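Task card 7
Instruction: Convert sequence to structure tokens.
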Amino acid sequence: MLDQEHFESKKRKAKKMMLWFGMISITMTFAGLTSAFIVSSSRPDWLDSFSMPTWFLVSTFSIVFSSIFFQLAKVNLEKYFRVSLSDNSNNYLFRKNVNIYLSFTGLMAIVFVISQFLGFGEIISLGYYFTGPESSVTTSYIYILVSLHLLHLFAGIIVLSVVIIRFNNQKYERNKLGFDLALIFWHFLGALWIYLFLFIKYFS
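Output:
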């Protein structure tokens, strides 16, 4: 019994370390790109009058709300576990709330993705493309930063989908580590986007 508990403890620590290693690696990647962004801003062909697309602000609000909903899902998950042990009649309510908040999290993620592409559309409407004669160094960097974050968010949406499926299959009854790790990763993606938004807004 003790050996099993020791094994499970080591397994949990290993999974947490893998997540933190992944997030640190992602952070270092974006730190390198934003550093290159600052260095390149001294170039003579850098756009000094570029303004942040309005839809990127919508993206910011949507990802903030998605993190709030995910956190509320965690709060109700904790309540669900507590009432499950006491066989309380509120069990169904908390379970329903978890699904509602997870669904809202997914909905806000979809709004985020749509608003990102609409933001790209705003940049294109100004006459700036990713590559080619109608591109610029400034917008090319912005395309790279935003697209790379969007790629990681797609991974987050897959993780969120797995969380919803596993919760409804009662996979977190004994071990909710997967839920907790997904929540941490989601908050990380939200914080990363806020950083990128503010960085692009004030350094472009």
